[in-house]
Predict the structure.
Amino acid sequence: MKRTRADRAGKRAFAGWIGKRVLGGILTVLLASVLIYGALRLVPGDPVLAMTGGRRLTPDQIEALRHRHGLDRGFVQGYLAWIGDALRLDFGMSTNYQTSVTSLITNRLGVSGPLILYSAVLAVVSGLAVALVSAVKGGLVNRAAGMAAAVTTATPTFVSAIGLLALFSVGLGWFPATGAGTGLADRLWHLTLPAVAMAIVAFGVLARVGNAAFAEELRREHVEVARSRGVGAAAVIRRHVVRNALAPMLTIVGLLFASLFVGTAVVETAFGLDGVGSLLVSSVSRRDFPVVQGIALIAVLLFVVVNTLVDLAMPFIDPRVALGGAGR
């Protein structure tokens, strides 16, 4: 009976912990959406003139633009109308392309989506592999890995993109300099250099953080006990090191995966890819505020969703997280 009551109390506490995480994510998106919508109102001068780049418009055209973007209404009323449309995946019309912002972003995701996934796989596999090997080997290997992680972390993405283009496209001619390719194999070939350029910083972060996490687990008492009992080195690393270090690493991986979406702006521009990142850059330069607002809101939503999913997955990877969170 007591155990049943304890189980019910534990489930209620765990459900409350999940509810807090989800509610926190929703509030974050709402606050960010207010700031994103309000940015248009903070433009110096007339926002309509800022969007049109000073082009001469008739009074009827100016009034139509004001109504389209909710500038003829108060802030609260305009925001509620805008966020209501956004919840229906309607981000308005692009002032530059004269088409739906949603369709523009959806069409560009065909390039940005594979690029982000490709880059994430490269960063996670190489970063964690280097981190684990350097933590286990130690000595010269550990120092070399630390130097490589420090250099890659400090290298800006645009520098990596220029260097890769100069060496592998212009110099050696191994990879194409621009374009996204057609078909699976051709697309992977075209996206290899952009994916590597995006993955370099993420690789450095994962290698450094992963090395520290794995090294800490290797020094724990239960690892020494397992070794003294004759458990094989591979089994010790798999069961006691990697598994226990996975929880803190998952948080870093989630953050880096979401940040890759923002990183597409630099890489896609450098490699001439028609993705969401290059669309954001061109929309900022052309003052296409509806497109900028739509991409910004999607980026915030991606960060919040990924971080919330990571938080919800933590208790299943490390039950201590759930116990600690439920107790607060």
Observations:
- The domain at 108-285 is CATH 1.10.3720.10 (MetI-like fold).
